[in-house]
Amino acid sequence: MALKAAGRTSLVDSVVEQLRTQLADGEWAVGDRIPTEHELAQQLGVGRNTVREAVRVLVHAGLLESRQGNGTFVRSTADPSAVLRGVRHAGAADVLELRVALEAEAARLAATRRDTHDLLRLRAALTGLREEGDRDADADLAFHLAVVGATHNAAFVEVYRFFSAQVHEVLVEALGDREMPPVDIDAHEALVAAVEAGDPEAAERQARELLRVPMETVAALTEQKR
């Protein structure tokens, strides 16, 4: 089915939507290799560069997986875009409540499952957080990903990776970085100590404490804007 010629951006979007539809309709199953760029370009009546950009979008969305030298494979037929739209339209307080639920449980599991490698990674992430500054979003994300990784739960890791970037975007758009309190390094240190000690209750408590001040700040700012 050829697509009508249009501006480059809209044409890429059109290819993305066409491929999303094919995935949702079950044209390819999870694990299948999709047609090559050349084949898709012929089928859709567009250039290979347009197909390449569209595939890249779907790889980032988690629907496709590119394997060097082997082609592109279907990773999931469940389109996460509706979930992403829901998160983006949620309020900052709702998003933080989601973070509390995810990170508190991750900390509890990490305390019972962590190994030596996990502890080294946590300490390295904590050092990075100190060195990069208390407002560095990437350093903070790396720290929390290290905690989630220590759960040794692949599903948990994927879900957290999926939501974490959206959570940050929502908070920045809703409140602005300068309005949020700085990262509490001491609270992060206490969380690492609880995980190292193998104390799940303390780890969960510290994870909740990490987000207590941000939640209070969001509540106060939201009230001021009413």
TrEMBL record:
PANTHER family: REGULATORY PROTEIN GNTR HTH, TRANSCRIPTIONAL REGULATOR, GNTR FAMILY. Keywords: DNA-binding, Transcription, Transcription regulation. It comes from the Bacteria. The keyword Zinc-finger does not apply. InterPro entries: GntR_C, TF_FadR/GntR_C, Tscrpt_reg_HTH_GntR, WH-like_DNA-bd_sf, WH_DNA-bd_sf. Pfam families: FCD (PF07729), GntR (PF00392). This is FadR/GntR family transcriptional regulator. Residues 9-77 form the HTH gntR-type domain.
